[in-house]
Amino acid sequence: MMTPDNFLGLPEPYAGASHARVAVLPIPFEATVSYGHGTAHGPQAIITASQQVELYDREFDREPALEYGIHTLAPLALADEPEAAVAQIAEAVAQVAGRVPLVVGLGGEHTVSLGFGRGLLAALDGPLTVVQLDAHADLRDSYDDTPFSHACVARRLLEEDGIEQVLQLGIRSICTEEVAFARAHPDRVRIWYREELRGGNWQEELRERLQGRRVYLTLDVDGLDPAIVPATGTPEPDGLTWPETLEILRTVAGAAPIVALDCVELAPVAGLHAADFAVAKLLYKAITYAMESQNHA
């Protein structure tokens, strides 16, 4: 029997739209990347690799995906121009987010998160807090002559009515402009630099800032160490380890409901399956944490 070509390779009824409580939306957009290329191929690489991920999760002692079900949607066909593509993404996400408890975006470059966030705000009642795992702050006002660059996505999200704050973890590459912006807006931007996460005392403040909030989680895969995910356009050394990444996700899920998430910036390399698989496995884990967070909200 051939494995179904969907996220995790789920058979019916677990992958059916009428059964699934999670919808996965591939968003293969790439227009503003500034170093390595290939993020447009990220969504399919994640879906393909996910079909090798075991459904059984030892942490939960069960197969969570068979409880909540995951329906994989067709990839979006998008305009080449970033502003137009953002509008298309927002419209598509708004339609999906109103129908399922959790919508998951597969990028594509990080610019897709602006459209994703706009779509969530249009569909969901009330404000959102963005939790961003990333090597970069993405707080520039413009980069390479466009405010819609992947290097500007956090700044653009903060301009959206309904985004209360952006909480960033794992940052280790940042420019003077971004530092100044974060310092000028401490109530809306909190950066935990890579070295701060080694201290073991970051969890309490993160929980405090999430209390009473709802979370939109954005996972830029370059937040992880290149030893885990080398296949990304702008890799940075000294990234998050696998256990550290899972600890962040557990902390977030234990503090507030995660109502949406995306995963961006995988630029698959032929023959380098480990990176695709790691991202797919991380995404399955993040989805399970998100669904657990909603159950306990």
UniProtKB/TrEMBL annotation:
Mn(2+) binds at H110, D134, H136, D138, D220, D222. Binds 2 manganese ions per subunit. Its EC number is 3.5.3.11. Keywords: Hydrolase, Manganese, Metal-binding. It comes from Litorilinea aerophila. Its cofactor is Mn(2+). GO terms for biological process: putrescine biosynthetic process from arginine, via agmatine. The keyword Metal-binding applies. The keyword Metal-binding applies. This is Agmatinase. One of its GO terms (molecular function) is metal ion binding. Belongs to the arginase family. Agmatinase subfamily. Pfam families: Arginase. InterPro entries: Agmatinase-rel, Ureohydrolase, Ureohydrolase_dom_sf, Ureohydrolase_Mn_BS. It is an enzyme of class 3 (hydrolase). It comes from the Bacteria.
